[in-house]
Structures are given as structure tokens and as C-alpha cells.
Specification:
Length: about 280
């Protein structure tokens, strides 16, 4: 059952307009505190963790900021165990943790099959465990998973997508559904240098994973764009670069296209709070 409109609206507001996206265990306590002080709405923890223990450290190092997973992989976790962990975190840090789940990649998961049905079954168990619909979200790229995110969660967290995808995603999920794309950035006004930082983490592994490649082709990119580490046109669409103001303008293209929130992944930095402060001030 979907949450009522007021509950969904309040949950979406918790994310704020911008968030910081990093890998599990990437943000030490001092960075977490700075991100909260800077007014970021959400800290996103990416990867495929087998449990939620790192979430507790981030929540404990802050007091108000929302924390979300981007994502918990359904193939290497037990839905009931994850649901029980969510319940325990909710008891200790009420209202602050949102559980993002997804089906990962067929290349990385030997048990991969029928992702739509598998995610649906995982959500059934989360229902039984007591994880509310409005406190979870789905990794979603294609139309079926986007619609499922609208029907059975707060919304979608698309990864490695340009604003053109955000426009299509908003049309698919409709209004009143969280749409929170991730976007990579390099704060560097030299486009050659910026691409040198941005291209490797896009190419490996994403330009070799079927679901991401299929999504990019749906948006009109060609085999030539995807080959050899990605064309400049593709890399520029997926990794915003320039000075801080130019990066901010590129990120806001997602908001114009219909996003509620942009999860910003800073590349090439040991302390992304520095770049985020420059981008968002």
C-alpha cells in the first residue's frame, strides 16, 4: 500500500535539494559532521554492503542529516535481516535512514534473474519486516523498475544518468514521487584534465555493464560513444566539470528536468566536503 500524500511529501522534503554520494566507509566522522554543517540534505552510501553496520557510524556522527543507501544489493543480502537492521536503526535514529535497494548487475551476480520479480519479492519481505513504503527507494533506470519505484517505494535513485534520463523518469513516475539521480563531478576548468579524472570511473565498470549500456542507448548514445572509455560527449554528460559555478549549473539541469534531489559524487578528492562547499555556496 502506498503512503498517503502528506507522508510522502514530508519524506521527500527530508532529502533536501542536494546530497553527497560516496562509497560505504568513504566518509569519516569529521567529514560527516562538515557535510551536515554545510546544509547538505542527505549522505548517500553506495556499494553493495552485506549489512547496514556502516550506516550506524554515519548516523552517530551527525544529528539531523538524512542517510540513504545507494544501494543494498538484493542478491547478496537477506531481505529479512536487512529489514530487521532497518528497524533497529529506526529505533536509535528515528526518521533519518532511508533504505535504497536494487538488483545490481548480471555480470556481478551469479544468481541474477528476473530483476523486476526479484525486487518485488524482496519488497514483500520488507513489508513483513515493517519497513514502511515511504522509507525505502529503488535503484531504477528502465520504465518497469521506475514504475515499481513509484508504486512500492518513496521513489527512484537512478545512477549514472544525464538530465535527459531525469526528464523521462519524471514522466514515467509522475508527480509526488522522489526522483534523486546521482551525478559525478570534477571541479576543474580544464576539460582535458577533468575528463582524465572522470573517464576511468565511468568506463570501469559501468560502460561494460549491460543495464547501464542499455540505458545509455535508450537515450540515444551509440556503440561509438560507449567504446574506448566513452566519447567526450558521453563523459561530459555523465561527469559535470568546470569551475564550481559551472558544475552547479550542470547539476541543476537535473532539477529543471524534474528531479527533487541531486546526489553529488565528487571525483578526484580525498575530502569532497571542500568541493561541495564551493559548488553549493
Amino acid at each position: 500500500m502506498s503512503p498517503d500524500t502528506d507522508v510522502r511529501v514530508e519524506a521527500i522534503k527530508r532529502f533536501g535539494t542536494y546530497g553527497a554520494w560516496g562509497w560505504f566507509k568513504q566518509f569519516p566522522a569529521d567529514q560527516v559532521a562538515r557535510l551536515e554543517e554545510q546544509g547538505l540534505g542527505t549522505i548517500w552510501l553506495g556499494g553493495s554492503p552485506k549489512h547496514l553496520k556502516p550506516i550506524r557510524d554515519v548516523l552517530a556522527a551527525s544529528s539531523t542529516i538524512t542517510v540513504a543507501t545507494g544501494i543494498v544489493n538484493i542478491w547478496n543480502t537477506d531481505a529479512r535481516a536487512i529489514g530487521d537492521e532497518w528497524v533497529a536503526l529506526e529505533a536509535d535514529f528515528p526518521g533519518r535512514f532511508f533504505l535504497g535497494i536494487g538488483a545490481g548487475h548480471p555480470e556481478a551476480n551469479a544468481d541474477y534473474s528476473s530483476p523486476y520479480d526479484s525486487v518485488s519479492r524482496y519488497l514483500d519481505v520488507l513489508d513483513e519486516a515493517g519497513v514502511p513504503v515511504h522509507r525505502r527507494l529503488l535503484a531504477a533506470l528502465g520504465p518497469r523498475m521506475l514504475r515499481l519505484s513509484a508504486d512500492r517505494s518513496l521513489g527512484a535513485h537512478p545512477y549514472l544518468t544525464p538530465p535527459a534520463h531525469t526528464k523521462i523518469a519524471r514522466e514515467t513516475v509522475g508527480n509526488g514521487v522522489l526522483l534523486a539521480p546521482e551525478h559525478k563531478v570534477v571541479v576543474d576548468s580544464d576539460p582535458v584534465a577533468a575528463r582524465a579524472v572522470g573517464r576511468p570511473p565511468v568506463d570501469q565498470p559501468y560502460l561494460h555493464l549491460r543495464n547501464y549500456v542499455s540505458n545509455l542507448k535508450r537515450l540515444g548514445y551509440t556503440d561509438a560513444d560507449i567504446a574506448d572509455g566513452g566519447s567526450d560527449q558521453l563523459i561530459d554528460a555523465l561527469v559535470a566539470h568546470g569551475d564550481a559555478q559551472a558544475v552547479h549549473r550542470q547539476l541543476d539541469e537535473h532539477l529543471v528536468a524534474g528531479a527533487d534531489h541531486v546526489a553529488i559524487q565528487v571525483l578526484g578528492s580525498k575530502d569532497p566536503s571542500v568541493e561541495l562547499a564551493a559548488i553549493l555556496n
